[in-house]
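Usage example:
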Amino acid sequence: MENTAHLLNEIDKKLMILLRDGRTLIGYLRAVDQFANLVLHRAIERIHVNDKYGDMERGVFIIRGENVVLLGEIDREKEQELNSKLTQVSVEEILDAQRREIESKQEKNALLRQRLKQRGINNNLMLEDND
Amino acid sequence: MYELIKHSAWKFKSILKSKHFSLISIKMLPLSLLKTAQSHPMLVELKNGETYNGHLVSCDTWMNINLREVICTSKDGDKFWRMNECYIRGSTIKYLRIPDEVIDLVKEDIQAKSKNRNQQQQQQNRNTNNQQNNRNFGGKNRQNQNRNRNNPNNK
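Running the assembly step on the lines above writes:
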């Protein structure tokens, strides 16, 4: 009981949840169970690229517990403080920025792989793209 | 040790009583919400990034699910497959997205159930009271009979 009580304490609070694929969800936690499966109400998916972010409305989520990396309550005051440093942009803009970021990362990786190969090192394990 | 247990029990009770801890949260589990969502449309994303759009037919306690009229989308969102039905093993699921109204449905469900339970309890209480009364009457009657038997004046 003690162990799950910590999650029960988070119920009905506004949480940020980080998934194993790197996605960030924000919403109100409504239910949990012994596997840390979560029900997230009025959820949004937030994408960050540098100092910009964009939100997408997502509704109700049932998240399978094993895919959760971490979750934490969002402090209302600090949220406002942070909003002065970050700028919210439209969904299209943030998706575009994300696509460009991924492409530039892939280009860098390809270049690095090529250079390593020229020097006789062929270690692709180091450079695997993390989803 | 006993103090500790007592304290944690008290703490849990106070959590249950606090206004932030809504009634719905106590009795609703993620999987019971999924069960309520039967026949509703939903989106299921697997761990490998594929998504399945369809209507939920059935689900079990392992989160295995049956879907109807499914559209499967590849990870990059560039390929689509249509199928009439499909079965998804629970352990491959990343998350499910369900319509907003299912949360309201589950609230109604829980309220109806707790009402039923109260009514049943009241019924049971009534029954046990009646039984006790009957027993009492039976006892008195028997006593009366005994008295009658023992009392020769009554004849």
